Model the fold of this input.
Amino acid sequence: MLIACDLGGTKSQWAAFDLDSFENGEDTPMLFQRYEVANTPNFYDHLYEFLDHVEDKTENIKPCRHLTLAISGRVDHDRVSPTNIPHWDIELHRIKEILEKYGHNTSTSIINDFEVLGYSLLYYQDRGFNPDDLTVINGVLPSEPKRGRRRREAVTSGDRSLICGPGTGLGISCVIDGMERNGFPYIISSEGGHFTISPETKGMLDFLSASGDMTHTPSFEYLLSGPGLVNAYNYFRTTRNFLTEVGRIKAKSIIENMTSDIDARDAVELFSTALAVFCGNMANTFNCNKAIYLWGSVVQNIPTRYIETRFANHFSHRKHGEKLRALPVAIIKPAKFPLVGGALYGQYVLQYGSARYYRRAPRVCP
Done:
């Protein structure tokens, strides 16, 4: 059995995969659970809950061979704190102790959440996306083989894809085809979401100026995230309509109110414009020549026409624009997407050991 956990700022998602089935191309989890982060004092409560769930729902439990935990932020030590849950300290040796209590003498890895999304992308590119897995908003994706068919021979060494996701924060990683070190795919995780905002429209400049403080150099995450969409909404409420800020509104509610609330509509339009600007700059930064994939509930919930229109107007309006106009951009929809990447990473660890080619390796507790 392989266990994967995707720990976000508002929830953790867990899945258990049968190792033999996964190796044979079956990516439907045996078990799936989601837990809310709010009002939970620590990560280990979620781990205990999921292991209890596995015992309750599974007969003849196979031992867990590997657990992959994907978190936001830098992963440099055996003790980490996710960027968006700073009061949670997570220690590898404590995870190992808990797993052993349940009879799982297994290894554990903690890796960056957007690195694990890179593994997810490799998995789906290798087997082919289903037609309803993607919504294309720019360019044309090359045709993919049917699911279950491998296409290693079609990979061109050096082709680069990006995966970008506004969620509780903003992450981005780069997947380079055909490159391996010590058996592992070469995936560049980054803190690119913390690039300082570079406004390219008057709307973006006005939003940035309205903060009243240009000394803290706000990053793109200040706008391109769930909390960032709330920032944009409150900007329009306070500067145009002289209303008070709404502190507890969620991004999903803003999107749902677009048809009846002009501030919500304008906030989504500003968000979509900034997303096109950010992706265009990142495509040039990483020399992306294959595709950009967008992930996360915020972009999944926004009506496609808003994002598509803003990409048409702002994505390619920069150097190398002719290449960007042809570069495919697509929104990924399967909910299990990050968990499949966690399971695939576990497979690599079982085959090759920990990924020691990194400057600071993803932390693996043997």
